[in-house]
Every structure is written in C-alpha cells, then in structure tokens.
Amino acid sequence: MFCVVRSSMKFIAAASIGIVALMASVGAQAGTGAYMQTGKLTSQPIGHYEFCKREAAECNIVSRDTRALSLNNSNWQHIQTINLSVNERIKPMTDMEIYGVEEYWAYPTTVGDCEDYVLLKQRELAKAGVPMTDLLITVVRKPDGEGHAVLTVRTDRGDFVLDNLTDEVLRWDETDYTYLKRQAANNTGRWVTIESQDNLLVGAVK
Predict the structure, then answer these.
(1) For 157, phi and psi rounded to 5 degrees?
(2) Which first-to-last residue range defines the signal peptide (predicted)?
(3) Residue 179: phi, psi to the nearest 5?
(4) How far apart are CA 137 and CA 146, in angstroms?
(5) Strand runs (DSSP E) across the chain, as ranges?
(6) How do residues 143-174 score in pLDDT, each as one tens digit?
(7) Exposure winner among 32, 38, 49, 120, fewest CB in 10 A?
(8) What percent of the chain has pLDDT over 90?
C-alpha cells in the first residue's frame, strides 16, 4: 500500500474539548452511521503480515468481549493527547527512505510512515488503558485514490479516527476517506471488510 506522508499544514487539535462538548456534537445517542459496519474476513495487509511474524504477541490477542469503549472525559483526553503527541514527535518518511523497501511496518522512534504512526498510537493508547479490541488498524483510500492507514478507536459514541495527516480526532463518517478494511475487534491478527456507506444506504431502502 502506498502511504502518503503528513502535510506541512498544521492542524490544531481540540484537546481542550471535554466529553460534554463531544456528546453535544454527536448527539445524546449516536446513530448507526456513527459506527463502521464490518463484513467478512479478508486478506491481511502484507506489511501487517510481516510485522506479525516479528511481533507475534501483538497479533495473537483474542477477546470474546468486544464491547466498545465507554467514552469519558479521561480517555477522550488520552485519545486526543496521544494523537497529537505522536503526530508531533514522528517525522514523516517513506519505508523506501527508511528501510529501502516498499512496505515495512514498525514502531517508529523518530521517523515513519502512516502505518508506523498507527502502530505507535495503538501501543500508547493500550498502555493508557484502552482495550486493544477498540484500537483497530484501518486501511482507507483517499479521494485521490492513494492508499492510507489510520487508527480506528471504537467507542459508545461512534468510531473515531486518529490520522497522521491531521491533529483533529474525527468520527469516521466526518472524513472524506473510503474505508476498505480493518483489524477484527476480536482478534488482532485477523482483518475484516468495511461496508461502504453507499451500500448501507441502498440496503436500508430495499
């Protein structure tokens, strides 16, 4: 997957926005469109497959409890702060520039591409207490057709996206991406398809 790097444009994260303001913005009860609808098992990205061979423990986490994270002021602040912190600490650079290969997923220390940002955010949020079942690597397509990776955080207020291209934490349906597939919530080594919003709308009127 070709991964675009961070724009030079600086976005301001709304880190001061509390959970009360968030709830007001998404409504008292999040609608069905706030959550991605996943489908059948699908292929694992080659970069993740190779990553799992090196980091087997990261890809063997299985859980029967796949309830979404109950969003509160504390974990919302963690989500926003970690997204901003990783975006600021890691300099965007392609795998070819770093490793001399097209695709190599790894935890970054100073430089990395989009999947590396995602891996680091996932690890840091897990250390902050967010279950891995709610931290899902997600493959998307940008409007220009380029491939990209983001981290989906599953919550009871909807599915939110952490992206190295913006410091804003947005709900998935507020972005302009086409969502293709993501890690399965019950198994970090498996991937599932994501149903397109267009298909869901068509199905709803049949």
Answers:
(1) -105, 5
(2) 1-30
(3) -90, 125
(4) 17
(5) 38-42, 91-92, 111-112, 135-141, 147-155, 158-163, 166-171, 178-184, 187-194
(6) 999 999 999 999 999 999 999 999 999 999 99
(7) 32
(8) 79
Name the residue ranges covered by the structural domains of the chain.
Answer: 38-205
Number of residues that make up the chain: 206
At the second CATH level, the architecture of 38-205 is: Roll (3.10)
Structure tokens at 87: 């975006």
* Residues 51-57: contacts with CB under 8 Å, at least 24 apart: 51/105, 51/106, 51/119, 52/189
- Model confidence over 129-145: pLDDT tens digits? 999 999 999 999 999 99
Q: What is the mean pLDDT of residues 57-78?
A: 96
- What are the Cα distances from residue 16, in Å, to 12, 94, 204? 11, 32, 37
Mean pLDDT of 120-130: 98
Model confidence at 96, pLDDT cuts 50, 70, 90, reads: very high
Q: Which long-range contacts (CB under 8 A, 24 or more apart) does 154-157 make?
A: 154/35, 154/68, 154/69, 154/185, 155/68, 155/69, 155/70, 155/71, 156/30, 156/68, 156/69, 156/70, 156/71, 157/22, 157/23, 157/26, 157/30, 157/34, 157/71
The DSSP call for residue 30 is: -
